[in-house]
Amino acid sequence: MTRNDSSRPARPKVESIRQLTRARWAILTVFLIFGMSNAAWLARIPSIRDALGMSPSQLGVALLAGAVGALVTVAAAGPFVNRFGGRAAFVTSALMFAVGFTFMGIGPAVGSVPMLAVGIFVMGSSFALGNVPLNVESAGVERRLGRTVLPQFHAAFSIGAVLGSLIGAACAWAGCPSRSSSP
């Protein structure tokens, strides 16, 4: 007779381990990209402010758009994930992320503070929507692996932030314009 010891978790199958490893690396990559993109953007804020001729208070109002976007979206993120699933929420977030960053780049290039603010708003919304399925999946991978890996995901964000800061600083040092110099 075989003994069924339900007190010990079953070992994952070989294929499951491969799938978990791929999921873990995918999540690490997303955290790294989030850290890089956010830090690279933050490093460029002074040149964006200067390119648009914004006062510190005007810059503060434009940056507030991101917090408002996140606040508006965070309340809807859970129900969105429940209704459409984590994959749909994450894909939607990634598309919003691309649109937000595009507007944040075009705004200063064409001298439009409203376009910059819309981009910042969409980025805040994207971040709030994407964090729900990302953190749910992170916790699920950790649970299925049976060991603590969440700190690795947050470390990937921090590594990305360092890399993004270096990229932003290098762009500033090289004099990369935030606004087109053509009339």
Provide structural commentary.
With 183 residues, this protein is an all-alpha fold. The chain is 83% helix and 0% strand. The protein is built from 5 helices and no strands. Helix 1 (14-52) packs parallel to helix 5. The chain starts with 13 loop residues before the first helix and ends in a 9-residue tail after the last helix.
Topology (SSEs and partners):
Elements (H helix, E strand, L loop, with lengths): L13 H39 L3 H29 L1 H25 L2 H33 L4 H25 L9
Helix pairs in contact: 1-4, 1-5, 2-3, 2-4, 3-4
Structural class by SSE content: mainly alpha
CATH class equals Mainly Alpha
Helix content: over 70%
Mean pLDDT: 88
How many helices does DSSP assign? Answer: 5
Beta-strand share of residues: under 5%
User: In total, how many domains does the architecture comprise?
Assistant: 1
- CATH architecture, by name, is Up-down Bundle
Shape: globular
Output the helix-strand order: HHHHH
Distance between the termini: 84 Å
